[in-house]
Amino acid sequence: MKQNETFITYFIIKGISDAPELQVPIFVLVLLIYLIVLVGNMSLLLLVCLDSHLHTPMYFFLANLSIVDMTSSTVTLHKILLMFISGDNTVLYLACMAQTYMFGSLSGHGLFILTAMSYDRYVAICRPLNYHIIMNFKVCLLLASFCWTFGFIQVVPYLCLIVKISCYSSNVIDHFFCDLVPLINISCSDVTLLVRLSDIQGMIIYALTPFLLILTSYIFIIQTILKIRSSIGRRKAFYTCSSHLVLIVVLYTTLISQYNIPYNSQGSKKLFSLFNTAIVPVLNPLIYSLKNKDVKAAFRRTVEKCRVDILSL
Q: CA 12 → CA 53, 87, 88, 172, 287, distances in Å?
C-alpha cells in the first residue's frame, strides 16, 4: 500500500457546523425547511393530478419539477436529520457513492426540465394556434423521459472516475452530504482528469447548453410579446412565463455563484449547497402558488370538493 493511502469502508460527515450549541437550531431549521419542501411540492403535485384544469403541458413539467425537488431535498438533507436523532455521522462507502450519483443526476434533472418548460412557454406564446398540436401528450412524455434518462446517464462518466479513487488522506467529509468536491478535497490520488471532466460537464451540460436553449426561447418570446399591440395582451403574455423566469434567474444565480467558488473554499460551497438543496425547492411551489391564478383556483376547487365530500358522508 502506498504511503498515506487509506482504505475507505465508510466516511464521516461533518455536517453544516461543528459548534455543539448550533446543532439544535440547525436541526430545527433543516427539519422545518424539509417539511415545507415536502408539503409544498406534494400539494402542488396532487393539485396537478387531481384537477383536470391543470392537465396541461406546463403543469405536467411542473409536476416533474416537484418530484425532482422533493427527491433532491430528501437525498441531501436526510443525513443532517439522522445525525441529530441517532448521533451517527458515518455513511458507508457505497451509500456515499450512491448519494453523490443521485445528487448529480437530480441537479441535471431540474435544469433539463426547466429547459423543457421554456420550450413549452415558447410554443404557447409564439405558436399559440398550434400549441395543442405541437405540445401533445406524446411530445411532453418524450421530453420528460429524455430529461430523466439523460439526467441519470450524464453523471456516470465522473462517477466511474470517483470509484476508481484508491487513495484518501482522510475519511472525514467536510460537508453535510457526499458530493464531488468534498471527495476531491480529501483524495490523495491524481484527480486531474476528474476535475477537468467535472468542470467541462458542469459548464457544457449544466450551464451553457440549458442556458443557451432557455435564452433562445426567451429571445423569441420577447420578440413576440413586443409585437403585441395592446398593453393588456403584452402583460398577459409576460405573466404566463414570469414564474418560470423567476425560477430560472434564482437557480442560475445560485449555480454561477457556487461554481465561481474555488475548490478549497468548502465553507462557502457548503452554504451555497444548502441554499440550492433546501431553499430553491421551496421556491417552486411558493412562486407558482402565489403568482399563478390557475393554481389558486385549482386549490379552491379541490378544497371545496373535499368539503362537499365530507359533508355528504
A: 48, 12, 9, 5, 36
pLDDT (0 to 100) of residue 143: 94
Q: How confident is the model at residue 248 (pLDDT cuts 50, 70, 90)?
A: confident
**In this structure, are residues 93 and 10 in contact, taking their beta carbons and an 8 Å threshold?**
yes
What value does the mean pLDDT take over residues 233-257?
Answer: 79
Summarised one tens digit per residue, pLDDT across range 100-155 is 999 889 888 888 999 999 999 999 999 989 999 999 999 999 999 999 999 899 88
